[in-house]
């Protein structure tokens, strides 16, 4: 009975997920396109396409510790890619005359069902672990410090993840610690996963634990110590047979992620341009012209992806002046017009940048671009400032919705902005973009203190 409860590898879950999803895709597909497509052709084409899409997108790499937000992000990304595949199929077999509306209805219903099944399985497993004690992993930790104690607390306070923590070995005396006694305990208690704090172990001890884990089929994981290199999201690669660690893993360097983000940017910016800017631009233009002479739009050179300069567009919010390209607007700035004060407070002045997004110079979400003169200044005095140029700049960003928008009054402001921008670059997801857009919309409605 204990072997059944344990369920160490949960080996049937992933094949079951594939089976459920393929059944939904092909079942609904035949139902929707029965009059158009040969069922054998449809099932073969979309089964292969789905599996091929799922592997690089890691759609089925959902683990017990995976967050709901990550699952939602995986579903949205897969939705975008699969929609492109379905439209490609309808274009490839153009003689079938499959209508776009039919494709959209099929895709949305398919993903609604797949999302329901995916979250249902996720929550059922959590319930199974908490209610019946099944599908669990026994754990031990080597080393006692703040991080390992936090991990121990995580194991104990979150039974839904299915970890049963058995013991933490303090290892306060590295030289006299008897690792063999620890190994004996691990074998007797049938421990599944071993967690080690790098800072609490010597190189010799780490080597012994690695050998023991390999020889006894135990999963071994390491907690980083306080050294900065271990706190980064390192990317592990092989050059032939030589292991290489990259100091920064950037999700948007992945070709699939690039396509997903670009498609999202084009669709979102097109909707804003068609449904908002089409009627709002004449109104804003009239108000700007009535108050002051000068152009409706303001164009400014800024640094974007790979430090490349581009023209960033805004509704003009200041009186025409020669210092506009050198100095940011400050609190009580006399250059700002009455109309300008309103459109800056509500961020309406930034809306023309959706054309920059459509042209490919910017993204909807990303690090905010700075004036060229400011970029050169900050690059010299602010550590890691240039990391922001690994991705396209955005109309809004994580730093802006986290309190770091507007005027840079002190170095603390720009340091905080860089910190949030780097976090965004290293942790990008579709869900994070949507969350930032939502928070930006709320801030536009409320108005922001530093929007002046």
TrEMBL record:
Residues 261-445 form the Bacterial sugar transferase domain. The keyword Oxidoreductase does not apply. The keyword Lipid biosynthesis does not apply. One of its GO terms (cellular component) is membrane. Belongs to the bacterial sugar transferase family. Keywords: Membrane, Transferase, Transmembrane, Transmembrane helix. Pfam families: Bac_transf (PF02397). The chain crosses the membrane at residues 40-59, 71-93, 105-125, 266-288. GO terms for molecular function: phosphotransferase activity, for other substituted phosphate groups. It comes from the Bacteria. Its main location: membrane. It is found in: Membrane. NCBIfam families: EPS_sugtrans, WcaJ_sugtrans. It is a multi-pass membrane protein. This is Sugar transferase. InterPro entries: Bact_transf, EPS_sugar_tfrase, Undecaprenyl-P_gluc_Ptfrase.
């Amino acid at each position: 009975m204990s072997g059944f409860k344990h369920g160490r590898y949960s080996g049937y879950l992933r094949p079951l997920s594939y089976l459920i999803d393929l059944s939904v895709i092909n079942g609904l597909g035949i139902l929707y396109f029965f009059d158009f497509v040969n069922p054998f052709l449809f099932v073969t084409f979309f089964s292969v396409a789905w599996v091929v899409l799922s592997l690089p997108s890691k759609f089925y790499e959902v683990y017990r510790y995976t967050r709901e937000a990550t699952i939602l992000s995986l579903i949205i990304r897969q939705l975008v890619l699969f929609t492109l595949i379905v439209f490609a199929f309808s274009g490839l077999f153009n003689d079938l005359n499959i209508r776009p509306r039919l494709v959209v209805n099929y895709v949305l219903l398919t993903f609604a069902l797949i999302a329901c099944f995916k979250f249902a399985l996720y929550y059922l497993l959590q319930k199974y672990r908490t209610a019946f004690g099944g599908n669990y992993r026994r754990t031990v930790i080597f080393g006692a410090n703040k991080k390992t104690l936090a991990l121990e607390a995580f194991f104990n306070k979150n039974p839904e993840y299915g970890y049963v923590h058995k013991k933490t070995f303090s290892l306060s005396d590295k030289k006299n610690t008897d690792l063999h006694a620890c190994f004996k305990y691990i074998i007797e208690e049938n421990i599944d996963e071993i967690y080690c704090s790098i800072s609490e172990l010597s190189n010799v001890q780490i080597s012994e634990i690695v050998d023991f884990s390999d020889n006894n089929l135990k999963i071994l994981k390491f907690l980083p110590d306080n050294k900065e290199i271990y706190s980064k999201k390192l990317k592990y690669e092989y050059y032939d047979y030589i292991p290489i660690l990259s100091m920064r893993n950037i999700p948007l360097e992945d070709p699939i992620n690039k396509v997903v983000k670009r498609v999202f940017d084009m669709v979102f910016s097109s909707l804003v341009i068609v449904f908002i800017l089409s009627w709002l631009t004449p109104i804003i233009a009239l108000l700007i012209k009535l108050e002051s002479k000068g152009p409706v739009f303001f164009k400014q050179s800024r640094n974007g992806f790979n430090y490349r300069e581009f023209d960033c567009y805004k509704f003009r919010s200041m009186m025409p002046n020669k210092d506009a390209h050198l100095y940011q607007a400050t609190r009580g700035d006399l250059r700002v017009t009455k109309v300008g004060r309103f459109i800056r407070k509500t961020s309406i002045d930034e809306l023309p940048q959706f054309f920059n997004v459509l042209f490919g110079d910017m993204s909807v979400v990303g690090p905010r671009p700075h004036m060229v003169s400011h970029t050169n200044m900050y690059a010299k005095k602010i550590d890691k400032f240039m990391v922001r140029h690994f991705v396209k700049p955005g109309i809004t960003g994580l730093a802006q919705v986290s309190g770091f928008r507007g005027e840079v009054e002190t170095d603390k402001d720009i340091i905080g902005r860089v910190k949030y921008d780097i976090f965004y670059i290293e942790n990008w997801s579709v869900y994070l973009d949507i969350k930032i857009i939502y928070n930006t919309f709320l801030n536009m409605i409320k108005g922001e203190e530093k929007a002046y």
